[in-house]
Amino acid sequence: MTQNAIPERNDIPERDRWDLSPLFGSTEDWEDLYKEIENNIPGYENFRGRLGESVQTLKEAVTFLLNTDRNIEKLYTYAHLKSDEDKSNQKFLAMYQRAIALYTRASEMASFITPEIQGIDEGRMSGFLKEDILKEYRFYLEKILRYKPHTHDEKIERILAMSQDFALASSQVFGQLDNVDLKFGDVTDETGRSIELSHGNFSTFLINPDREIRKKAFHQYYREYKDHENTIATALSYSNKKNIFYSRVRNFASARSSALFSDDVPELVYDNLVSTVRENLSPLFDYFRFRKETLGLDALHFYDTYVPIVPDIKFTMTYDEAVELCVKALKPLGEEYTSILKKGLSGGWVDKYENRGKRSGAYSSGCYDSPPYILMNYQDKNINSLYTLTHEAGHSMHSYLSIKNQPYVDHQYTIFVAEVASTFNEALLSSYLLDLYRDDPAMRAYILNREIDNFRATLYRQTMFAEFEKVCHAILEQNRPLTLEVIKEEYRKLLDTYFGDTLVIDPELELECLRIPHFYSAFYVYKYATGISAATALSDMVLNGDEKARNSYLNFLKLGGSKFPLDELKDAGVDMRSPTPVKKAIDHFKKRVEQLKDEMGKLKG
Prior knowledge:
Helix content is about 60%, strand content about 0%.
């Protein structure tokens, strides 16, 4: 009998849940706004065929569009947060699906706007853009105009808008299977307790000092994916096919070029990342050999790659303690930043603990009219939860400052810069902890070990994932089948490359690619690796006491989406068009490995 089962949603105290009342006081209020939008969206017809008649009409049309989007985002945010509380709750799942369907209907009705804007005579549009009345919308309109070669007439745009709902099918199928239907059974821990294995505590089992428990959890976890491998492989393949379909319809050379176009990121940035990391795998191999030696193992398996190599460190930290420490670690960002953050983390921003059916992992999410909410599955005995909270706090403060300093049209920053804000916070946390335990070699080694493991997971592992995405899409773009066998074969090649001879590749690890939700968001994962590279460079400058660097970084957080991401990062002080930041990040990783060896040497001495 399971002695420590996952609690039901109703068993989670209110103080440990996020407060969604700033969005809606009740589902009835949600329904009222839904009906209002439903009644208003036919108003798009008032602007059809008229966008080029005057600058005033153009502004009114764009304002109507943005106000509609803003209200739908409010509906969507509430519905997706409520659905993620318990993915088996059919009421909130239905609301979530209705919000998406409403957005699809609105997009259909608005489908003429982009082609009409792009169809305005170039000289006339140039004159419009110089008018003060459009000043707030200038960057927004410029982004629309650059899509002109990739936009069709109204009829085709309407069909494409209609397709958005069912285009999410692969992602939704995977999400329901992964978060609701998969059951991983129970694992007996070192105290004899039978604990239900879940997404939320899988990583906790992987850091258990007892190798047999780690091994059992690993094999048991992946056994469930093995039982569903054909279904998940099919979902992943068709998700990739969807990406290729839209890229071809939009006249892009590839799905990757389509995904990178919106951020104005050259494919060279992606290729520089992969090539630079591939050329610098030796520090990673060196670390794995050191890990194997320190753990005293004959062979290193994946389930041996996260357990702390420092013995007898019992990490325990409550959520409230984690908030206090997080605030202290982020002190270099100033009193205003930390006071706002503390209030949010201690108040209603965060849904703290795992419950049955809750979405796995963690994220920060919200909209222009809500707080920047954080979903957590906090584990007291896992230092990764402390880092995850600090990571998501970076996203949330980025959102908070963007919304406070930008109008709705420019507030939404891209994922490319989002991952800078989150990993920047993690860098400050590691620096704080290393200083806090400066006289304790065991704790310093423990923190260094954790930072190194996070770094390799974010830089090396996400780059491997990025290469996997590129390979899978290329196979389909060459009109070759992407079957389960092909997926596993290609992933195995990458495992062999990125682990070399330092790791025994268990067959189950070939299924790892089937459990990554981010693969259902095209070419997303590379941004983690570029993000940690940029964040390492920026945090080094701030930690060195450079006041100008701190102000530049805080100003960067306030930019929202008012510039393209590479330009925003250049303003902050780092040029991601160059491979230099990635090389510096690898140098940082190498330095941390050497520091870890030194601290471990002190323990042996």
